[in-house]
Every structure is written in C-alpha cells, then in structure tokens.
Amino acid sequence: MRVLVKGAGVAGLAVAHELARRNMAVTVAEIRAGIGGNASWLAGGMLAPWCERESAGEAVIALGRGAADWWSAALPGHVTRAGTLVVAHPRDASELRRFSQRTENHAWLTEDAIAKLEPDLAGHFRLGLFFDQEAHLDPRRAMEALVEKLSAMGVTFLFGSGQPVPSGFDRMIDCTGMAAQDPALRGVRGEMLILRTSDISLKRPVRLLHPRHPIYIVPRPDHHFMVGATMIESDNEGPITARSAMELLNAAYALHPAFGEAEIVETGAALRPAYRDNLPRVDARDGTVTVNGFYRHGFLLAPVMAQQAAELVFASESDTEPEHEADHQRRSA
Amino acid sequence: MLTCYGVELASRLFLGTAQYPSPAILADTVRASGTEVVTVSLRRETAGGASGGRFWELIRELGVRVLPNTAGCHSVKEAVTTARMAREVFATDWIKLEVIGNHDTLQPDVFGLVESARILSEEGFSVFPYTTDDLVVAERLLEAGCKVLMPWCAPIGSAAGPLNVRALRSLRAHFPDTPLIVDAGLGRPSHAAAVMELGFDAVLLNTAVAKAGDPAGMAHAFAGAVEAGLEAYRAGIVEPRETAVPSTPVIGQAVFS
Prior knowledge:
The complex is a heterodimer of chains A (333) and B (257).
Chain A: E1 2-6, H1 10-21, E2 25-30, E3 46-47, H2 49-52, H3 59-64, H4 67-74, E4 84-88, H5 93-102, E5 107-110, H6 111-117, E6 127-131, E7 135-136, H7 139-152, E8 156-159, E9 171-174, E10 186-196, E11 206-209, E12 215-220, E13 224-228, E14 232-233, H8 242-255, E15 263-274, E16 281-285, E17 288-292, H9 298-315, E18 331-332
Parallel strand pairs in A: 1-2, 1-9, 2-8, 4-11, 9-17
Antiparallel strand pairs in A: 3-7, 4-6, 5-6, 10-13, 10-14, 10-15, 11-12, 12-13, 16-17, 16-18
Chain B: E1 2-4, E2 7-9, E3 13-16, H1 23-33, E4 37-41, H2 43-46, H3 54-61, E5 65-69, H4 76-90, E6 94-97, H5 110-122, E7 126-131, H6 135-143, E8 150-151, H7 165-174, E9 181-183, H8 189-197, E10 202-205, H9 207-210, H10 215-235
Parallel strand pairs in B: 3-4, 3-10, 4-5, 6-7, 7-8, 9-10
Antiparallel strand pairs in B: 1-2
C-alpha cells in the first residue's frame, strides 16, 4: 500500500514512522523547504502528561503516558528522563497547592530537596513539586533525527511547494495542522524565546507557577534554554509582541536572576491547531485520514495518535470502499 | 428581573470566558450556569489587531449576550480605543470598562475610569465600569453617564470573598435603584450568596469557575448560591443579636426554682 503523508511536523513524522514500521511505502510531502518553521519546531518538547493534567482532562494522561517510551524506542538517546520540577514564589504558594490538587504522581519538595535536584536553584524556592516520571526531548534534534531515520527506512521526503506531488497513492493522511483549513480548528497563539547563558544550568524542565504568567523553561544542549509559552486565543501568526516577550523574560528572570544576563538567541510565534475540546483527533473521511488538533501536546500525543492513524490505514488495507466507514472509524481522543 | 440598559436578564450570574481548559468546557459551563451574559477580553486575544477569529466565533455560538471588556488597559486612551474596537467586533454598545491602575493588585485607576466612562457614555456606549467599593467614585461614575456599577469585593482573581462589607452595604444603601454587580474577588459560592444577601443585583465570576476542578459543576453551584442569596435578601434576613433569644415563648411556663 502506498501512503502519502502531508505535513512534516511532529504529527506527520510520527505517522510516517508508524506506517514505515508496518512496511508501507510512505511519502512525506511538506510544503515548506525544510522541517523548520512549523508549530512543532517551536515546541517545548516536554513529555509531561501529569503536569498537563492541571489544565486538561484525564485523557491527556491516558494518551500521553506512553510518549516517553515511544520516543525512546524510535530515537534512542533522545529522551531525558529527569522529571519535571514545579516551583512558585512564596507569594504564589496557593498556585502550588492548586497545582498539586489538580495533578497526581508528584511529591512535595523542600528547599533542600530542590537544591539537590537543581543546585543552581538552591535558596530560591522554599517549596516545589516533583513529577519524577516525566521526561523531555529537544524537538528540533528529534525531528531532524526522525527524518534521517525515516529516509534510511525508505520513506521519501518531498520538501518545498515547487515539487509536483506524485499521484497514485492508495491513502492520504493529512497532518498539516492549521494549513488543513478545517473549520472545526482554531489557532491558539503561542510565543516563545530561546535564551543562552552558561551562568546557570538545569537538568530538567522547570515550571514557574504564577496566577497570570505561568512559564516553563526547558534546558537544551549547549547552554540554551527554551522559555515558553503564551496561550492566546488568536489566529494571528505575527511576531512575538513586546508584552509577551516582557512577560516571558520577567518570569525567566524571576526564576533565576542569571537569566537577566542571558542572550536572546531567538524569538518565535506560531499557532497551535486545536479543536473545541483541545484534544487531538484521527478522522477518516472519503479515503483521507486526518490527524490534527494537537494544541499544546504535539510531542506528547503524536505517538498515540500516529498509532491510531496507522492502525486505521492498516485495517483498511483490504477495504476497497473506505468512504463507507467514515462515521465508524472516526476516533476521538 | 434585573434590567441593565433596558435589557431584562433572568440570570444574576455573569461569566468571564478566560482560563477555561477548553472552549468545549467553557460551553458546558455557560449552559450549567444558566448565565445570559459572558464577558470577553478584547485586548489580549487580538495580539496585534487581527480578528480574534475562531475563538470569538465560538463565543458567539454560545448564544448568550456578549459583554466585551477592556481588560489589560492601563490608560484612558487604551480603554477607549479598545471599547471602540469591541463595538465593531461584537456589534454591541455594551462595554465592561476596566482601567487598571496597579499592576500587582489590578486595582482600578478610578480617575482614568471616570474619564473613560464619560467619553464612552457620550459616544453612546452602555458602560459597565469595574470600580472599587468607593462611594464617591461610584457617584462620579453615575454622573459620567453609567447606569450600572460593577464594584469589586476583593482584588481580581484573589478568591478572597467580600473584604469590606460595610462599604458594600453603603453602596447598596446609597444607590437603591442602580444595578450593582459584584465583579472580582469571589472565590466560592458562599461568597456569592453573601453579597447577594446584601442586596446586590448580580455577580460576575471567572477564575473561581474556570480554575475549578470541574468548571461546569462549580458554575452550577454558584448559580444556586446566587439564587439563594437573592431570595434570602427579598425574604428579609433576621439581624444578628448580642444575646440568645428562645424561639419558643417562655411566658406562662412553670417556674421551678
């Protein structure tokens, strides 16, 4: 069976991986010239289903708990299993209590325990929460490595809009996010920064709670830190606003003053595609499968949705009338 | 019925639309609360002036009246511009006017508030000013053309409940015919019942509902509390006394001493 995957964001690459693993002939077509420039490129890369439960339903845990294993198996060496540290300043202690009530699988940390985990944060926070089963990866390295691995597995990549997309595919899987132009999708704008400083090092993602501007900082190789992310109900894809940059920088500085001296290496803004329930979906309609609506959970939920999509395609391999199954095979997270 | 700028409202609960886990949960919450008015913030959601797009469509699809607000505005100019934008986007003259004076407490800048209220009222807006519990400011807002007042009972998002009951009572006593809607600071249903028992006309909630574990369940709980408080106020609440008073008459009973 020949399958065309449209879109080389995290969803498209994960789907291609699941299909290639099942020995299907896969072509990935990406309208951009390379793998950068999409929402996945700006992602935090946190595999943190228990933390995400704070603002999402139970489903995020059920669907996301296997993500770290999937990425480890797909890309050995890319996943760091060091947990997530959640802190708040004393004046926002109630935010920490609230976070703990909404989540599970965490332990309370005292000042000393925080210092043991993250020596550079010693003395900055009196209380914290530790989610020891969570993990993270570098989204850019992971995507590049996945393209390399998939190419070696025989997957064809067509980058750039100039290329004519060959025909004759048995199935098409649309993983193009906002570009799918699905009226059920809306954009949730996210803005982020990448900072560089060697004055501080972190071993794991740190979330700083705040009633208005909660942020996370994810350590990346070579003294880089990804600071994210705003959540704005807007379809505007323009550059980061001064206000958002100020809020992110303020929060980073509040986490540790060393970030005040960091270089701002990059700023970014993109739209997260989201359905009304903020959960992703695999849909089958008229012979086309769509995998979309990852919201802020691309790297976390792409594995499980990719598996669902691949099973759908695989199951229909002998089916000659895929359009009849549209309603039955629609799977919702 | 509560009447605000000529519009009759059966529900005494207004809801903010920010911070919900998802638009689907927001829609469930609006249904569970029975609310007829939702506020929506224009400034943050636009992020540079483009249309809010799908999220605003989802708000319109809720089928309730939209009260746009000027949240995040720190000056008269910002607030007035935002209000004019809101009129275009949502095709309504209603505007919840917020002019923030202090970044930490989100306390209203009452001077800027009165000035913006005057400008917007002259332009035909129906202004719902987010104000403090200060009596004199309330008078100035009414003079500026406001027909509804939205005093805080505690800082926005603090969930602290009514902090200054004397001031709230005083507002009610001085403006018996003006719709008074408590905006900001309510954390739990008993807080909402407490201000309704003081005779306030309605409450506006956002954080207390949106950040609850089950927003729809919490909205339903608040709706019940608001109704209870309203009914209690109308029924006439017994004033507290210093001493115990037996509820059965003691006169005529035998004395054993």
